[in-house]
Amino acid sequence: MSVAKQRLINDLQRGGITDERVLSVMAAIPREIFVSRTFVERAYDNMALPIGFGQTISQPLVVAAMTQALDVGDRMKVLEIGTGSGYQAAILAKLARRVFTIERYKSLSRDAERRLLDLRVHNIVFHVGDGTKGWAPQAPYDRIIVTAAAGEVPQTLIDQLAVGGIMLVPVGPDPVNQTVERIIKTEQGITREELMPVRFVPLVAGALPTYEG
Fold first, then answer.
1. 107 has catalytic annotation
2. What is the pTM of this model?
C-alpha cells in the first residue's frame, strides 16, 4: 500500500470508521483513476474533488461513513442515486451482490462504466435517468444510497426500498445546511435518524441535460 493511501486509511480510522470490510475495500480501490488528471496527486487527500458538470467525487471519509452506515451484505441489491465518477459504486460493488446506479449525465455514466470495466467489476448496472424517480423495474432494493442532497426525501425512493431495508440520503435546503438521514423501512412504516452534517451537490429532478459541453 502506498504511503498516501495508508495515510488516508489512518485518517478514516481516526474519523470513526471501524468496519474492516469498508476499510479493506477503500484500501483496494484505486481512487486515482476516478479523479481528473489535474487532481491525481490529491487522489488520497481526504477531500472532495471536482469531476465536471458541477459534480464532485465525495470526500473519502464521507464515502466510508455512509458505506459503513448502509451496512451492506454480500447478498444484497443496492440502488445508488448519482453515479458521478463511479467511485462509490465501485466500493458498493465489492460489498453487495449487485449495484444499480443512476446518473443524469450520460458522459459521466459512460466514463464511470468504462472505469469499472477496466477494474473488472461486473456486478454494476448503469442507467441514465432522473434519480428522484429511482429505478422501479428493478425494485425493491435492500439498500439505497443517494449521493446528492434532496430538499426532502423522495417518496418514490422510499416506495422502492424493501421492508427491512436501509436508505441513506443527504437532506437540506442549501449546500451548508445538510444532514445525512438514515431511513429504515419496517412493516409499520419508516424510522428516520440524523447521522452527520455533509455538503453535497443538489439532487436535481426533471428533464435530463441535452447538452454536456
1. no
2. 0.94
